[in-house]
Specification:
Layout: E1 3-5, H1 9-18, H2 32-35, H3 39-42, H4 51-61, H5 67-70, H6 73-93, E2 98-100, H7 101-118, H8 130-147, H9 154-157, H10 161-191, H11 193-203, H12 208-214, H13 225-256, H14 258-272, H15 289-301, E3 307-311, E4 316-317, E5 323-324, E6 328-333, H16 334-338, H17 357-360, H18 381-398, E7 399-403, E8 410-412, E9 416-418, E10 423-428
Parallel strand pairs: 1-6
Antiparallel strand pairs: 2-10, 3-6, 4-5, 7-10, 8-9
The structure holds protoporphyrin IX containing FE (HEM).
């Protein structure tokens, strides 16, 4: 890194696409200082890879997020939300209705991911799971290392107890993923790909790991075991904390705005009227417009990923003629873009009507970038939005959510957290869960 420029994010992003120039992945690759601590864990998965490898993998993985694959996951999201809600009801009946949303929801999103990625049920919301504990530990250790400048060099870091913990947790996570890959490989050649797909289609769920095993590039080449592991581990990491942050903050915002909370609840009740069991389905995703507006406004005010960075490998000319010189690292503040008062009047006010279809027409699509933008945007955004809608809808159907005792303080780490957790009160509503 030769120099760092904190450039007005919106300016650089808007400039890049506004003039029809693609914010090409090749010209502005990710700045690895930002992510390098995760390399031993996530390897060359999509989040961290670059160049041709990234392009090839992105093309190969895009079908994994096709709605045909995602559709059956809705059942999984309903199931993991049910487990969490049953736990909340039990805790409330034992006298604790004051809950740290991050703690509960992260476990739930990890539970969902482990089922969607590996087809594996670890029961992690009810009993400790070594694998899930290792992922939580890895995420916490990476965030902690960012704060300790002396430990940024690998040599020193791996001499410390934290560095050794990081190594151990990495090993455990890799062993789990490797074991699933080997087990799947054993079943694949016997059955042949077509038989396998047919059998899977009958059970209606194709795990991500199956898609990774089956996908081929333009030359008919498949991914290596190492590549598959990196991609699966990347989904587990990138998919859990981000979605948990999004859900925790939307519950916070709705706790602070009971009028919007009630309106969402009515929308869900209306949708599920006369339906038994009360389960959210794929086709419902477009039937919850107000709830969707509430999620989007929350992602604006509290974006899970607050900043991303890019390194300019060539001079980049902005539409007004100014140049970002080659070698400069740009920090792109998603949080700053979402709080820009010239685009978002009263930016600190939570107002879901900003996302009313009538109100979005005049706004640049780059004013709202919780999932980033351009070719390196979030590949999992539909997965994430679907999970958030299912879980939020069921939560509001079954619980009233109220603010905690203290106002949370935002704490940007790898994702946007709250200092000491995000504590809210939950009150079960009479009719649920069934
Ligand atoms: C609310 C939830 C989520 C948010 C806000 C979010 C946000 C983001 C952002 C901002 C990026 C760009 C990162 C960068 O440029 O450095 C990204 C990339 C990525 N996300 Fe997400 N994400 C979410 C959920 C998910 C889920 C559920 C998955 C997978 C199951 C996922 C997988 C990925 C991957 C693989 C990348 C790297 C894509 C690439 O570089 O080609 N994300 N995400």
């Amino acid at each position: 890194m030769t120099s760092a420029a904190v450039s007005g994010v919106s300016r650089s992003l808007r400039g890049a696409t506004g003039s029809g120039v693609t914010w090409a992945a090749a010209i502005a690759p990710k700045d690895m200082v930002f992510y390098s601590f995760m390399k031993p864990w996530l390897g060359d998965g999509l989040l961290l890879s670059a160049g041709d490898k990234w392009g090839r993998h992105r093309r190969m993985l895009t079908p994994a997020f096709h709605f045909n694959i995602l559709k059956p996951y809705v059942k999984i999201f309903n199931g993991t939300a049910n487990v969490m809600h049953a736990k909340w009801k039990r805790l409330v009946s034992e006298g604790s209705n004051h809950l740290d949303m991050f703690e509960h929801i992260s476990l739930m999103t990890l539970d969902s991911l482990q089922k969607c990625v590996f087809g594996f049920d670890s029961n992690c919301q009810e009993k400790p799971s070594e694998y899930i504990a290792a992922i939580l530990e890895l995420s916490a250790l990476v965030a902690k290392r960012h704060q300790q400048i002396l430990l940024h060099t690998d040599f020193l870091y791996y001499l410390t107890p934290d560095g050794q913990r990081f190594r151990r947790a990495c090993r455990l996570v890799h062993n789990f993923t490797d074991a699933v890959i080997q087990e799947r490989r054993r079943t694949l050649p016997d059955q042949g790909v077509d038989d396998f797909l047919e059998a899977k289609a009958k059970t209606k769920t194709l795990d991500f790991i199956d898609v990774l095993l089956l996908t081929k590039d333009e030359d008919g080449k498949r991914l290596s075991d190492e590549d598959i592991r990196a991609e699966a581990d990347t989904f587990m990491f990138e998919g859990h904390d981000t979605t948990a942050s999004g859900l925790s903050w939307v519950l916070y915002n709705l706790a602070k705005h009971p009028e919007y909370q009630e309106r969402c609840r009515q929308e869900v009740q209306e949708l599920l009227r006369d339906r038994e069991p009360q389960e959210i389905e794929w086709d419902d995703m477009t039937q919850l417009p107000f709830l969707t507006m509430c999620i989007k406004e929350s992602l604006r005010l509290h974006p899970s990923v607050t900043v991303i960075s890019r390194c300019c490998s060539q001079d980049i000319v902005l539409p007004d003629g100014r140049v970002i010189p080659k070698g400069v690292t740009c920090l792109i503040s998603i949080f700053g873009t979402h709080h820009n008062p010239s685009v978002w009047p009263d930016p600190e006010v939570y107002n879901p009507f900003r996302f009313d279809p009538e109100n979005i027409k005049e706004r640049s699509p780059l004013a709202f970038i919780p999932f980033s933008a351009g070719p390196r945007n979030c590949i999992g955004q539909t997965f994430a939005m679907t999970e958030m809608k299912v879980v939020l809808a069921l939560t509001l159907l079954r619980f009233r959510v109220l603010p905690g005792e203290e106002e949370p303080r935002r704490k940007p780490e790898l994702i946007l957290r709250a200092e000491g957790g995000l504590w809210l009160r939950v009150e079960p509503l009479s009719a649920a869960p069934r």
